[in-house]
User: Which sequence fits this backbone?
């Protein structure tokens, strides 16, 4: 088989070593005679897998002791409802949003069912080409929390700063598509969530990191399985958790630790992103339309100046083993997602093809 590189936005490439280990352990995990998929979530085997995954994620992100790590289900989109249900305290209370692209847009729409939404800043008029400067945000006095999407997977916009909020208003961040790609000061956030299918593991696992004092405020309509307090009290096992997904996530965390942790990943991610943006910026054959200081290191959308060549570009890419480069249908063009598990060789192969296709 030709070597392939998978640039999908998610579900996305996973480290080969992780898949190889999972394959080797598929039928018999550590002499237990069972596949991880067949184990009771309450048995000692799975509990050891679960607890190691929790501890490794805590170590990787230096999660302080007064935060719970929950492994939930339902994906990033479910958290758009679950977070307001759990954090507004009183239905209809104000929540502040920063609208930076498609995913924060979806969060705003969903939260409006449970909260009164204030869009404190938006880059919609600029076609979501930047994160609005914090000085321009019009935050409410009494918001239950401030919601951000710190990496917009479709628009290719990433925060390069941690916002500061007055008083004790918690910051909530959807980090689905860049969690573990760079160090983050968890203590600056009240809650961080992310679907697993980009930098963590298979779709189905949803990670929530939440500060203790935000638990226990769920609206009465909150389903018990989505009540953070209930989930935390039951070590994410109020209902059967996505056990196999948690196992793979745990292998990814071990892999990340072997790579040197998130600081080492950040270094590599900067190198990979710079390599790709340099090729896109070399002349006007390709275009990335995001302001320099807001460019994502993970998801890099780009357009061909001559869009009639799109199909030929994608066909040529596929022939070279460069897969899933088509942009999201809502914005068109191309997109290269270069998560932690994408090696620099993959980015170099894409850059070589970009140069060849542009006739450079
Ligand atoms: N937020 C972000 C930033 C995303 O990239 C995605 C998925 N691409 C979602 C939320 C939605 O995640 P899910 O499909 O797991 O619900």
Assistant:
């Amino acid at each position: 088989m030709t070597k392939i590189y998978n640039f999908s936005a998610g579900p996305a490439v996973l480290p080969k070593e992780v898949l190889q280990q999972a394959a080797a352990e598929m039928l018999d995990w550590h002499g237990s005679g069972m596949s991880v998929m067949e184990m009771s979530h309450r048995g000692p085997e799975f509990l050891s897998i679960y607890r190691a995954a929790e501890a490794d994620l805590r170590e990787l992100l230096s999660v302080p002791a007064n935060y719970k790590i929950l492994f939930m289900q339902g994906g990033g989109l479910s958290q758009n409802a679950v977070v307001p249900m759990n954090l507004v305290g009183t239905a209809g209370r104000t929540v502040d949003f920063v609208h930076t692209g498609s995913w924060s847009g979806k969060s705003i729409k969903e939260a409006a069912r449970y909260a009164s939404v204030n869009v404190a800043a938006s880059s919609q008029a600029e076609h979501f080409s930047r994160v609005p400067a914090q000085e321009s945000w019009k935050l409410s006095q009494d918001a239950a929390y401030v919601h951000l999407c710190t990496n917009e997977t479709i628009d290719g916009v990433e925060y390069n700063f941690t916002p500061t909020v007055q008083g004790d208003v918690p910051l909530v961040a959807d980090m689905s598509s860049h969690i573990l790609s760079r160090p983050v000061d968890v203590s600056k956030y009240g809650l961080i969530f992310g679907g697993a299918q980009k930098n963590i593991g298979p779709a189905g696992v949803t990670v929530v990191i939440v500060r203790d004092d935000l638990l226990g405020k769920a609206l009465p309509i909150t389903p018990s399985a989505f009540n953070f307090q209930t989930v935390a009290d039951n070590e994410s096992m109020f209902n059967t958790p996505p056990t196999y997904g948690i196992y793979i996530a745990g292998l990814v965390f071990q892999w990340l630790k072997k790579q040197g942790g998130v600081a080492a990943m950040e270094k590599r991610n900067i190198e990979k992103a710079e390599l790709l943006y340099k090729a896109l910026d070399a002349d006007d054959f390709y275009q990335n339309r995001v302001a320099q200081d807001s460019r994502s290191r993970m998801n890099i959308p780009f357009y061909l100046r001559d869009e009639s060549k799109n199909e030929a570009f994608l066909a040529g890419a596929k022939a070279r083993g460069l897969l899933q480069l088509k942009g999201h249908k809502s914005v068109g063009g191309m997109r290269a997602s270069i998560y932690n598990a994408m090696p620099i060789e993959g980015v170099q192969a894409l850059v070589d093809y970009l140069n060849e296709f542009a006739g450079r």
